Amino acid sequence: MGDKNKTSKQQYDDQRLAQALPQLTTEQIAQVSPRFVRETFAPGEVIIQQGDLPDRFYIVIRGQAEVLYKDLKGETETVDSRKAGEYFGETGLLQNRPRSATVIASPNSEVEVLALDRQDFQEMMSESKATEMHLAQEMIHRLIRLANAES
Question: Is residue 81 within 8 Å of 65, Cβ to Cβ?
Fold first, then answer.
């Protein structure tokens, strides 16, 4: 089954997946892509909440998401953002711990994501050690940025 049989929407999703996770081979993308589900969030809507249990991994395919961090004093600030072709939600899944930040759809526009549930995410990681290493390295950088936001 070649690309001729795929819809333009599926091809677009595959391109965003390849952009977000370039370590995946074409075969791995073909295998995992159908497991992703498209979800749309209204402007300002919460996608993941800091402190919640991690259940999904997300790739932004349209719009922008804002990463918010609530510090120990209870103050919330925007610490980062994610645009099309970027991902979030990996930290809690990789570390098996509650969400370290809140992610919302940008207040200016809705955001569309590809969402992958925990089990499929773990299978994707076991199938691609290069992707797992990449995500682990990015997770470390993101946690350092959160720690710096706290100080």
Answer: yes
Residue 103 contacts residue 66 (beta carbons within 8 Å)? yes
| Number of domain units in the chain | 1
CATH number of the domain enclosing 132: 2.60.120.10
Query: How far apart, in whole angstroms, are the C-alpha atoms of residue 92 and residue 121?
Result: 12
Q: What is the pLDDT of residue 150?
A: 66
First CA to last CA across the chain, in angstroms?
52
Q: What is the pTM of this model?
A: 0.86
Q: Give the 3-state secondary structure of residue 47.
A: strand
Q: CA nearest 23: which of 138, 142, 113, 141?
A: 138
Q: What is the rounded distance in angstroms from the CA atom of residue 71 to the CA atom of residue 23?
A: 33
